[in-house]
Give the backbone structure.
Amino acid sequence: MSFIGGIIGDITGANQAARGAERASAAQAAAAEKGIAEQRRQFDALIELMSPYVTGGQEAFGQQQALVGLQGPEAQQKAIAGFEESPIFQSLVKQGEQGILQSASATGGLRGGNVQLALSQFRPQVLNSLIEQQYGRLGGLSSIGQSSAAGQATAGMTTGTNVANLLANQGAAIAGGQIAAGNRGRQIFSDVLGAAKAYAAF
C-alpha cells in the first residue's frame, strides 16, 4: 500500500509542480502585457503633450523659409507684404515719419534733401528691422519644435526598446509554461513506467 501511495504521491506532486509553473508563467505573461500597455499609454500621452510644440515649430520653420526665399519668390513676397500690411509696421512708420517731419519743421529744413532722403530710407529700415526681429522669434519657436520632435523620437526609441524587452519576457514566460506542461506529461509517463517496472520486479 505504501508503495502504491508513493507512486500516486509522485504523480500528484509532479502535477502540482507543473500546474504551479504554468500559473506562474501565465502571471508573468499577464504582467508583461500590462507593462506593454502602460508603456504605450505613456508614449501616447507624451506625443499628445508635445504635439503643439512640434506643430508650432514646423509652422515657424516654414515662415522662416518663406522669409529667406527658400519657398520661392512668391512666398517671400507674400511674407514681406504681410509685414508691410501689419498694424505694427503701419504704426511705426507713421510715428517715425511724423517725427522726421516735425523735426525738420522745427529746424526749418522741411523741404531740404536730407528730409527726403531720411523719409525714403525710413520705411525700408523699419521693414528690415521687423523682419530680423520676426526671424529671430521664429527661430526660437523652430528650436522648441525641433527639441520637442527630438524628445518624441527619443521617447519612441525608449518605448520600442522597453516593449521589445517586455515582449521577450512575455515570450519566455509563455515558453516556460509550455515547457512545464510538457515536463508534467513526461514526468507522469516516467512515474507510471517506473511504477510498472517496480511492480513487475516486485
About this structure: The CA atoms of residues 32 and 167 lie 7 Å apart. The radius of gyration is 39 Å. The chain has one domain: 2-201.
